[in-house]
Design brief:
Structural class: mainly alpha
Number of helices: 2
Radius of gyration: 16 Å
Number of strands: 0
Largest sheet: none
Shape: elongated
Helix content: over 70%
Order of helices and strands: HH
Length: 71
C-alpha cells in the first residue's frame, strides 16, 4: 500500500509538471499570436485543448491518490 501511495504521488507530480508545461506553451503561443509572429489561431486552440487535457490528467491523478488512500 505504501508503494501505491508513493506511485500515486509521483503521478500527481508528473501531471502537475505536464500541466505547467502546457500552460507555458499556451502562454508563449498567445504572446506570439498577439505580436503576429507566426502563430495562428488553430495552434492556440490546440494548445488550449492541451491545457484542458493536462488539467484533467492532474485531477485524475489526485483522485487516484485519494482512492488509494481510502483503501
Amino acid at each position: 500500500r505504501l508503494r501505491d501511495v508513493s506511485a500515486a504521488r509521483d503521478r500527481i507530480t508528473s501531471a502537475r509538471q505536464a500541466r505547467e508545461l502546457a500552460e507555458q506553451r499556451l502562454a508563449n503561443a498567445n504572446e506570439r499570436f498577439r505580436l503576429g509572429r507566426g502563430t495562428d489561431i488553430f495552434e492556440v486552440i490546440s494548445l488550449q485543448n492541451g491545457v484542458v487535457a493536462a488539467q484533467n490528467d492532474e485531477v485524475n491523478a489526485r483522485i487516484e491518490l485519494l482512492d488509494t488512500l481510502s483503501r
